Amino acid sequence: MTLDQKRWVIGGLGFLFLLSLVSVQWLEVARRSHEAGDSRASVTTPAASRQCVDCHSQVSTGIVDHWKGSTHAEKGVACVDCHKAEAKDADVFSHYGQQVATVVTPRDCARCHPTEAAEFSASHHSKAGNILASLDNFLAETVEGSRVAFSPHAPTPGKAVNVVNGLAPANSGCQQCHGSLVAFQASDGGLVTMRDLKPDEAGQPTDMEAVGRIVRNESGKPLFSSTSWPNTGIGRLNLDGSAGSCAACHSRHDFSARRARQPENCGKCHLGPDHPQKEIYDESKHGVAFRDLIGEMNLDAKPWVLGKDYSAAPTCATCHMSANMRNGMKITHDPGERISWTNRPPVSLVMDTNASHEVVTETNPEKRRAAIADTADAKRNRMKQVCSTCHTPDHINLFYRQYDDVVINYNEKFAKPGQAIMSALAANGLLTKTQYDEKIEWTWYYLWHHEGRRARMGASMMAPDYTQWHGMFEVAERFYMELIPEAREITEKAMQAGRSEPARKANQVIDEILNRPEHQWLLKGADEQADVINREMQRRYGQTRSER
Description:
The strands form three sheets. A two-stranded antiparallel sheet has the order 1-2. It has a two-stranded antiparallel ribbon with strand order 3-4. A two-stranded antiparallel sheet has the order 5-6. It has three domains: 51-132 and 179-248, no CATH class; 257-391, no CATH class; 394-514. Helix 20 (393-427) packs parallel to helix 22. The chain has helices spanning 3-35, 47-59, 61-68, 71-74, 79-83, 106-109, 114-121, 128-131, 135-143, 168-178, 194-197, 208-212, 257-260, 263-266, 277-283, 285-293, 316-320, 365-371, 376-387, 393-427, 439-460, 464-496, 500-514, 520-524, 527-541; strands at residues 93-95, 98-100, 184-185, 191-192, 341-342, 349-350. By secondary structure, it is an all-alpha fold. The protein is globular, with a radius of gyration of 29 Å. The longest helix has 35 residues, at 393-427.
């Protein structure tokens, strides 16, 4: 081979190598773009929505860009299809020749997604607004803020503040997850909500006087109240009488299924000290695997079936909602269908539910059987179908045994006793009727609402640090070092004040609890138990460890 021939060969090989590098880089960019949701299909805007798209492309570009990347756009579903309203609707207004409404509700989504809307409407998610009818309301609306507006007590430099909205913590906090009662400004200075409008079965108002009180701008658009809007809380109470918001998970305006399938989507609400499911998931082996193998999750697949489209790792959606090969590829928009314990209340309850999807609390066996429409065992079996894609029956059954043991231990050793102590103090007039004005009420709230939930949820998702150190350790510390001493202090003060009988009755409850075998270590010492544990450590590990 001549020198010139060698040069041509080397040059050709170099060119091919460069071309391969460019091709690989292009494919990698395309792959990453697809994973990030940046891929765009060619879409044709329906005629009815063309004016909407042309205008909003200039004034709110992001809305249009998101829509263009959506499955809706691919299928020819556009602005008017979702936002169209009837002339009788309370929130209807004329917008460049179209009768539209700003708030899109599950009732609107049901026009194309009836099954999903029905499942969601029956779920605990859609009723999340009802959960706020609890002590949480009092915290946000009274303790953290005020039920009535109040005047500033000192000037704010550079900012004229004449009145303070005491409901601000609730409006911008609780309601952004749980949902608000969507409200318009009223001509009398009040609000107009679904409670005033009294919508019929079609979602249209029946109280026209209330409709007439809605304040509108010069274009006829109704004006929302900042007490409730913007809001995509999953339990939002809409003007048409429907509950919930599909956009809580399927973010507007692309309504991405891929995003809804990722744990970060659920983390908008399931995060923080009282329900840290997202952090718990991140700690678990499942979360670790997801982050490592996200490129193998096939998150854009339709319909995204576990065991068929992916098996790298489960996400929140995988376990609680998505299809799998073992359940006939059935998707559900009711995440409660696979949950066998409810770990939200102070004491965990078995998730036997009635026809209204409410937890059955009846203790009489015969009456309980009659009331149950869906059993906790059936729910657990649905979850086991998910687990069985990756785990053996022994693994699954033993996991559930571990989980059940933690929940029952928490219930019996701390939750039920704590509840009994608080009830005894209240029943004997040793607590005021006002919540959170006494330290022990904060202590009890922390015990079950924060530490107790973390322990139970940690066990449910195989996150040992949350089960132990963020969970049961803090439950125990709160119970023995705070709740019990504070309860004793209350009874002692009552005795000093001459209220010996109420104090005696409350102390009787506390004494009965502490005299149970599981609490004996506190009253009588635990040297013998510690010796037993040390001997066991010696047997297991060849060493003892004693820390004082």
